[in-house]
């Protein structure tokens, strides 16, 4: 069975990395079983065989693959007869935009939930996380999320192209989700797993899409420890 | 031969609709000849058979198709053996995000070039355009584009997901352009055709992609009357 190093908080079953969630759903989409290994920031040595220190890392036989986009490509190339994540080479190329938008949205969401992440971390991870993120943002975690309510409308307005798309089709992949969906969903699942802060209004088509994905694969994402349905 | 109603300015060969350009490139991609008909805002009667009053409108035999997305789908469905615009049903669904992002970008670009559009219009179109756009924006055309230099950095920053994608592949469709490229390019070609205002820095990967598309199809877009290469 494949093994996935999966970021965990103080509680072993609080798995919250937006990038790991992309792969959890991609594996479920392909119908592949996986053993997830709870991993924490201070365990970089455990990933050494991948040649770098970040998750997700997928271990398949003697292969160690890292980076959510590369892992998704690997799964598609290695299991071409299982349900497709991309719909062919053109769909794979087109999905790169979805993945990059997901990365951008994760960056935006961090301005709302970064302190909540911190509070859920294992004690051994807290000082690393605070120092590395405060260096990245050039301010304290508390300052990063300060006055977040006042920035919420801008965040929601910035999602308009996603909203327009989901008004005319249930998933970015069409009638069923593809990797483009998982790439965009990861950041929302991340927020859900570590913060009660409500990013979307209940009547937003993006919220409805999020709910459909929470329920997909027998509720894989929706049954994970988190703050709402 | 098919016929495309194509928005023109005072000069018959100044064709500048972002949505018509999507279809011009889609037709070239399929290798389909088309007769373009210069159309102006005050000629809504000419489109009556399409059931509405906006371009692009494609006439194929007795079929009148409007809306750039619907026309692209029609071309793909009607000419499945010609070079694909989407790469299959998954690629078509995924491209919807590119199309909607293109629409959003067109709206953003209007804040920079709307007055330049006005100045290139046929005299008969000017009052319609000024009234309809001033109603839409709730301010004068002059106010819409006021202090545009100060808004330029925000516009460029907002294109980050496009930029990230074009750093790793030459086109959104991969090694060659697909409809997703044409949908995103249309707004930039619109700006080029009617305004000298420089939206992108010369070293932006988006500017390089734009240049590649200007040169595609024997320079179809790049040789059209406009303000730079």
Describe this structure in words.
- The structure is a homodimer of 229-residue chains.
- By secondary structure, chain A is of the alpha+beta class.
- The first copy, chain A, has helices at 18-30, 68-78, 89-120, 123-137, 141-144, 148-157, 160-168, 179-194, 205-219, and strands at residues 2-7, 34-39, 57-60, 63-66.
- Chain A has two domains: 2-78, 3-Layer(aba) Sandwich (Glutaredoxin), CATH 3.40.30; 89-219, Glutathione S-transferase Yfyf (Class Pi), Chain A, domain 2 (Up-down Bundle), CATH 1.20.1050.
- In chain A, helix 1 (18-30) crosses helix 8 (179-194), helix 3 packs antiparallel against helix 6 (148-157) and helix 3 (89-120) runs parallel beside helix 8.
- The interface between A and B is medium-sized, with 33 and 33 residues.
Gap between N and C termini of chain A: 30 Å
Average pLDDT number of chain A: 97
Q: Considering DSSP H and I runs of 4 or more, what fraction of the residues of chain A is helical?
A: 40-55%
| Percent range for β-strand residues of chain A | 5-15%
- What sort of overall outline of chain A do the alpha carbons produce when their principal axes are compared? globular
- H/E series of chain A: EHEEEHHHHHHHH
- Broad structural category of chain A: alpha+beta
Oligomerization category of the chains in this entry: homodimer
How are the strands of the biggest sheet of chain A laid out side by side?
Answer: 2-1-3-4
Secondary structure: elements and pairs:
The structure is a homodimer of 229-residue chains.
Chain A: E1 2-7, H1 18-30, E2 34-39, E3 57-60, E4 63-66, H2 68-78, H3 89-120, H4 123-137, H5 141-144, H6 148-157, H7 160-168, H8 179-194, H9 205-219
Parallel strand pairs in A: 1-2
Antiparallel strand pairs in A: 1-3, 3-4
Helix pairs in contact in A: 1-2, 1-8, 3-6, 3-8
